[in-house]
Amino acid sequence: MGAEKIIIDCDPGQDDAINLLLAMSSPAELEILGITTVAGNVPLEFTQRNARLICDVADRGDMRVYAGCPRPMVRPLLTAEKVHGGTGIDGIEVGTPKQPLQQRHAVDFIVDTLLAADDASITLVPTGPLTNIAMAIVKDPSILAKVRRIVLMGGAMREGGNFSPSAEFNILVDPHAAQVVFECGRPLVVMGLDVTHQVIATRERVARIAALANPAALATAGMLGFFNRHDSKKYGYEGAPLHDPCTVAWLLCPELFDGHDCNVVVETASPLTMGHTAVDFWGVTGRRPNATWVHAVDADGFYDLLVERIGRYST
Ligand code: BDR
Ligand code: CA
Question: Mean pLDDT for the chain?
Answer without folding.
Answer: 96
